[in-house]
Amino acid sequence: MARSGLYKSDVQKARDALIAQGINPSVDAVRVALGNTGSKTTIHKYLKELESEDGGAGGKRASVSEALQDLVERLVVRLQEEAEERVAAVRVDSDAKAAEHVAALQAAQNENSQLRARALELEAALQEQALALVASQADHQRESTMRQVAEQQVSDLQQRLAENEAHRQSLEEKHQHARQALEHYRQSIKEQREADIRRHEQQIQGFS
């Protein structure tokens, strides 16, 4: 990203210093001289402006190799920018999916907590009903029926709890897979970009 306050005079000083050292003032070399700051597109624009100014003052013309080198440098800059844009787009999409997985996971955990609390309440109710059965034999049949209903409710809640736990684990696995896929894509983009840069650098050397 371009640093705030990068002026053409900064680029000119860095370029002149490289030339004085016998170093070709390419976009990457100038950016390194600037402390690895500034947009490559901005640096390239300023270098072209300075080249035009120098050509007007001294009547110099760029050689064929210099023109080819400039073309390759612009292609490298464009490839790098496109790769960064693709990585950013994938990152935004992956972050959104990760947020959805986290939200769904949190919702499942909240529901599990509510189900556990409800199960505890029903178990407490069952204990109270058991005591009531001992104290009142006359109401035995009614209490037995209520107990069966409560036990069925507990069983149903426990089944839902198990299903929600399985769903939560599935969400965790999907979340992990999404993160691994993103990391793999980022690495492949990085390797492709490095390969493109090396290939263009070799082309530059071949034209020089």
TrEMBL record:
InterPro entries: KfrA_DNA-bd_N. Residues 8-117 form the KfrA N-terminal DNA-binding domain. Pfam families: KfrA_N. Residues 162-202 have a biased composition (Basic and acidic residues). Residues 156-208 are annotated as: Disordered. This is KfrA N-terminal DNA-binding domain-containing protein. It comes from Duganella vulcania.
